[in-house]
Structures are given as C-alpha cells and as structure tokens.
C-alpha cells in the first residue's frame, strides 16, 4: 500500500475516490507500462490507467489498454479500469461497446467525481435535412477502394449515422460482395442497423430512402464513368493509397490527378488521403516513407485548405487477415458480412475505421449529420 500522494494529480484524484470506497492502492514496480496503479479489495485486483489529456480518449488508446490484458503481466488482475478526465470520443465508446470486454470498464471524471460509463437507449440529436455524400475513389485500381467504402459505411452506421452505399463502379464489386445488404451491430440496447448497397440506377438523389442522411459512394477509378451530378454533391472524399517506397512518385501523381479531376467539378469537398494496408516495422522504414509522403503532399495542403494527407500515426487501415480475406463468403456461400467480427476481444478493422471516423469528425464538419448518441453516465 502507498500514499496516494505519490501519484500524479490526475491519478491521485481517482485513487482517493477508490480508497474512500474501501480499495487499497498499490503502485506498480518501476518501469512498468500499461497501467498507473492497482486497486485491491477482497479477491478483486484492478489495473487502473488514468488519461489526463486535454482531448478525449480515442479508439487506439482504448485498444492499447485492451491489448494489455493479453500480456502475461495482466494475469493477476481480475479487471481493468480506464479512466479519462476529458471523456472518450463517441467512436471510442462505440468500439468498446462492440468488443464487449468482460474484464475492462471505462469511466470519466465529471466535476471531480468518477462515473462509470454505460450504454443505454439512444438520445436523438437535432437532425439535418441535408443528404451528405462521401466519395471513395482514385484514378488507380487495386488500392482497396471497395473495401474502404464498405467498411467506412459500416463504421458510420455503428457510430449512429443512417447511411447507405451507392455502387458507382461499373465492375459492381461492392454489389456482388454485399448483395442483399448486411447487418451492422447496434450499440448498447440499440437494434442492429441494415446497411444496403444501391446501384446507380436504383438511387434517386431527389428522393433518398427514408431516414438516410449519409451516402458513401464506391466510385469508378475512371473518373469519367462517375456521374457528374453526384460528384458535384460530394462533401467528403477519401483517396486510399499504400505506403510503397517504389511507388511514391506514381502514387503521388495518381492522387494529384484524382484531386484535379474532383476539383474540375467540385470546388468545396474535403479531400483526405488515407493509407491502406499499413503496418509498422521495427526498422522504422514505414516512418521514413511516411515522412516522405508528408513532404510530398505539403504543397498541395498549403494550396488546398480542404486537402489533407492523414498521418498514419493518427489514422490508417492496418494490414490484417480479416480484411485480406474479406469477400471469401462469395465462395463459401455464407451470408455477407463486414470484417467487424470480434476475435479474442479484438477487431483491428473495426478499431481502424472507427478511428478514421474520429479523425474525419475532428478535421471536418461531418459530425453534424449524426442521428443519435448512445451514452449515459452512471455514478460510481
């Protein structure tokens, strides 16, 4: 047992409340990472981590705390408690709710008091009458455009938006992969959402399906094959690419060309370059290549205030087996589904796409089109 005065201010604030509730506080051994202190009572031993950042906790921070409980050091803990003084982003809470962890709970500090977070019935937000379009496309095939379109729409649905997908690619890969639509799990007590794919000839932009506020368009890599009247309406565009050391100039040219094509008909859309199939390596080669990409697109960002290269340390779609084998159901005869299945309490694609949505909400005005929040606070 230690004096809570040995802890940092934020940790001390949480530890004192646990002490008042009858818990014994113990500091971890020197150089221990993953938690800030432990709290024990009877047979319970809890690993506690306190986040005191100025910004809300995001998906990767929740994911790292969950990952800690896969390590041998965590075996002696019965539970974990992740506490934030500045709250959690909605998408971080959505991710946590969907992984359904039995060992970890989240809490926030409000007005000096620790509150458990629980999920309850959705609370309606003011609705916008505007239909918003998100375009996912590039002038080069094979970079994961269709995969990005489907799973971004899935993350958008998970996070409380009413969304549809429009397949604009003449190859109709997305229509084939998700024929008949797919169910996306609800958050808390909310029922699953149905995510439907529309062909262009099925979509009437003057009379969209009831309740739909957002449409993700899987665009053709041939710009001229995309209907101009829809591209004109894109409020947000995602251009996926890969972090390839031999392809920087080629990829850069493709992205510049895509930007030029979009701007020829749409002057105002937010445009984001997203790294797909990303992985970090011990030799830090990915970091070196990433810095070259950032330098390459810096001038474009200066000329185009609404053009951004997303630093993969902030948001990227990691290399994963779940995404690699997505689409296998068309051969196995199984029902279509997104690569959002939790395996061993984890799902990297779900975490990545919700984190991407966090980034978009932080760097654009997309969050105004959300239809519901699914969070309530419960007193500790």
TrEMBL record:
GO molecular function annotations of the record: DNA binding; endonuclease activity
Organism of origin: Oscillatoriales cyanobacterium SpSt-402
InterPro entries: CobQ/CobB/MinD/ParA_Nub-bd_dom (IPR002586), DNA_Partitioning_ATPase (IPR050678), P-loop_NTPase (IPR027417), Restrct_endonuc-II-like (IPR011335), Restrct_endonuc_IV_Mrr (IPR007560)
GO process annotations (BP): DNA restriction-modification system
Signal peptide annotation: none
Domain Restriction endonuclease type IV Mrr: 9-106
Highest taxon above the source species: Bacteria
Pfam families assigned: CbiA (PF01656), Mrr_cat (PF04471)
Alphabetical list of SUPFAM superfamilies matching this protein: P-loop containing nucleoside triphosphate hydrolases, Restriction endonuclease-like
Coiled-coil zones: none
Residues annotated as domain CobQ/CobB/MinD/ParA nucleotide binding: 138-295
Protein name (database record): Chromosome partitioning protein
């Amino acid at each position: 047992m230690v004096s809570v005065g040995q802890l940092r201010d934020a940790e001390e604030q949480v530890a004192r409340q646990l002490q008042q509730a009858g818990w014994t506080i113990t500091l971890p051994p020197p150089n221990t990472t993953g938690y800030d202190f432990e709290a024990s009572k009877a047979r319970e031993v809890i690993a506690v981590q306190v986040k005191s950042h100025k910004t809300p906790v995001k998906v990767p921070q929740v994911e790292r705390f969950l990952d800690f409980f896969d390590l041998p050091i965590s075996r002696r803990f019965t539970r974990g408690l992740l506490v934030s003084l500045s709250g959690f982003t909605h998408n971080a809470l959505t991710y946590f709710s969907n992984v359904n962890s039995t060992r970890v709970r989240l809490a926030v500090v409000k007005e000096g008091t620790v509150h458990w977070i629980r999920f309850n019935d959705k609370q309606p937000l003011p609705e916008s009458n505007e239909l918003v379009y998100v375009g996912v496309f590039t002038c080069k095939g094979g970079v994961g455009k269709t995969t990005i379109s489907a799973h971004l729409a899935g993350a958008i649905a998970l996070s409380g938006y009413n969304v549809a997908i429009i397949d604009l690619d003449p190859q109709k890969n997305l229509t084939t992969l998700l024929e008949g639509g797919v169910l996306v799990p609800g958050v808390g007590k909310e029922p699953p959402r149905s995510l439907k794919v529309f062909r262009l000839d099925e979509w009437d932009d003057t009379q969209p399906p009831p309740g739909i506020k957002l449409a993700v368009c899987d665009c053709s890599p041939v710009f001229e094959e995309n209907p101009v009247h829809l591209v004109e309406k894109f409020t947000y565009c995602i251009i996926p690419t890969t972090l390839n050391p031999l392809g920087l100039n080629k990829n850069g040219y493709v992205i510049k060309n895509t930007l030029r094509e979009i701007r020829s008909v749409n002057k105002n859309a937010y445009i984001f370059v997203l790294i797909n199939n990303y992985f970090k390596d011990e030799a830090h080669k990915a970091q070196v290549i990433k810095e070259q990409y950032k330098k390459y697109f810096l001038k474009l960002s200066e000329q185009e205030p609404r053009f951004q290269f997303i630093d993969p340390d902030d948001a990227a779609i990691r290399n994963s087996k779940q995404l690699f084998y997505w689409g296998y159901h068309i051969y196995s005869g199984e029902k279509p589904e997104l690569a959002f299945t939790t395996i061993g309490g984890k799902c990297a694609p779900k975490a990545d796409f919700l984190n991407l949505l966090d980034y978009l909400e932080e760097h654009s005005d997309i969050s105004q089109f959300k239809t519901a929040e699914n969070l309530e606070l419960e007193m500790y």
